[in-house]
Design a protein that fits this description.
By secondary structure, the protein is of the alpha+beta class. The chain has four helices and four strands. The chain has a four-stranded antiparallel sheet. It is elongated, with a radius of gyration of 17 Å.
């Protein structure tokens, strides 16, 4: 799973974004391509963005909503055992 950094996303020219009500909203389609992940579970709103010189209404989400809605990779068997051992009462 790729780690997201808000500052890098803000500087990346290939990701369309806009500031709305003092928060940055990123195009979900652009972020999905960047991460190569399915972001269909991410809570989003439609906002107009300037794309290729035309104003288009697209699905957008805040950085926090993207992080919250990303599908987490399942734990490996080894990591499951480690997690169980960590919570084992002595």
């Amino acid at each position: 799973m790729k780690i997201l950094e808000k500052e890098k996303l803000l500087q990346d020219e290939s990701i369309h974004k806009t500031e709305f009500e003092k928060q940055w909203y990123f195009s979900l389609e652009d972020i999905a391509i960047y991460l190569q992940e399915d972001l269909s579970e991410v809570e989003n709103i439609e906002l107009p963005l300037l794309i290729d010189g035309q104003r288009k209404t697209v699905q957008t989400a805040t950085f926090e909503d993207i992080e919250k809605g990303r599908k987490k990779e399942p734990l490996s068997e080894f990591n499951k055992v480690l997690l169980k051992a960590r919570h084992f009462k002595k």
